[in-house]
Structures are given as C-alpha cells and as structure tokens.
Amino acid sequence: MLIAQITDMHLKGEGELLYGRIDTTGFLERAVAHVNALDPRPDIVLATGDLVNDGGPEQYANLKRVLAPLEMPVFLIPGNHDARDAMRQAFPEHGYLPGDGFLQYTVEGLPVRLIALDTLVEGEGHGELCDERLDWLEARLAESDRPTLLFMHHPPFKCGIGYLDREGLNKGGQRLSELVRAHGNVERAMAGHVHRPIQVRWAGTLASTAPSTAHQATLDLRPIETLSLMMEPPGISLHLWREGTGLITHMSYVGNYDGPQPFRAM
Hints:
Elements (H helix, E strand, L loop, with lengths): L1 E5 L17 H14 L6 E5 L8 H11 L6 E4 L6 H7 L14 E3 L5 E4 L10 E2 L2 H13 L4 E4 L10 H5 L2 E3 L1 H11 L2 E6 L6 E5 L2 E5 L6 E2 L11 E2 L4 E8 L3 E8 L13
Parallel strand pairs: 1-2, 2-3, 5-7, 6-8, 7-9, 9-11
Antiparallel strand pairs: 1-14, 4-5, 10-11, 12-13, 14-15
Helix pairs in contact: 1-2, 2-3, 4-6
C-alpha cells in the first residue's frame, strides 16, 4: 500500500497569491499532477491541514477544484488556517467527515488502520487535543490491535524551530503520548504544520512531518522565535506500507528535474 501525504497548501481564492507573491494554487495543481503520474500510483492521499489560508468558502471551492483530478481517495483534516464548518460544507461527498463537532474519524478496510485527529483551535495558530478528543482516540485505539497510522496537523513533538514549537501542540501532548505508548500498535504519527520533512522517535514509535506543496519554513535552529519562509522545492511524503517491514517513508520533490540517468562506473 502506498500513501501520499500532502500538507500546508495554504490555498487562496482562484487567481489570488499568498502574501502577494506565492502561487499556492499553481503549486498544488503541480503536486496533484505529480501524484497522479507516480508509478506505482498511490492508493490514497492524506491531506494534513492548512488546506486553505483563511478558512473562507471561496478558498475551499478553489481547493475542491484543484483536488478533483486526483485519481484516488483523499482524506482531509483541518489545520490552524482552516475552518471546520466551511470545510464540511465544501466537501459533503466526503462521508467520513463527521457532520458536527471535531473532524476526527477512522478509515477501515485498508492494510493499515487510519485514525485522523483534529488539533485545530479556531482562530489560533497553536493546536490542542482536549479531553473530549483524547477520550475519543482512546476508545478508537481500544477497538483494534491492527497496525495503525495517526495523522494530524500539529506535530506531537518539538521540532527545534522556535516559533513553530511555540505554536505547536500546546495541550494534550502528554496524554497523547501515553495513549500511543500504552496501546503499542501505532506505526506512525504523521503531521504537517512545520513545512519541513522531519522524523523523530516518539512515544515508543516514530513521528514525522511532511514538506509543504508550496513554500518551506526556513531551517533555523537558533533559539529565536521569528519565522521566515524559503522557496525551497515543494514536496510530498510517500509512505510505503509493507507487511512484515512496516512503514517506509520517502520524500518526493515536485517539479521537473534532469533524469533519470543511468549510474556509470567512475
């Protein structure tokens, strides 16, 4: 099974540029074409939040238009730039999305079980997992001992980039870690938010983030709390599930690059 993870698309309305200069719509259109062209083609796509930039209906309409050509199922969760009700209203055909409350759900019937977590605090940059959301997770983890992937927007770990750590998962992280460690069948916790590919050992398993389909956060590990962006190559994460091995993750750059060329002996 092959899973494509796209994240932090930050779409504006059709024809609008982010910060007056970044064509996030064009970047996502190229990412969608990239996913469709992969061989083997991913079985599903996980979109891990900050789907749009301001949570407006016109932005979700643009997102729906751009995602429509994807030739496999897409599973959406909100990030801190999203709005639950507008997102629900834009995607009524996505029957896995709850009709009210938090946008948390499970996906069954695949080689691995998927659990989506909603870390959104509307109007804030940081994320939270309150008792209600964590009680729901605890019940879902108790239902099955099958290999499970969690996906959420805010990563459950500190990444070393000061501003993003301050605006990270600011509540519920400790209990989340305890639940994951206690159940022991979570293969990976996958997140977005950071606009960079990062991996860390966490809660007895692994946690990771994926690059943005558009702009990346500057890799600045100094103890400062300013945030800047870099127009480094956009990318996606590809998660390959193999029975007996587990989850193998690759980063795939979106764009046109020279190659493939054969290796030749030097």
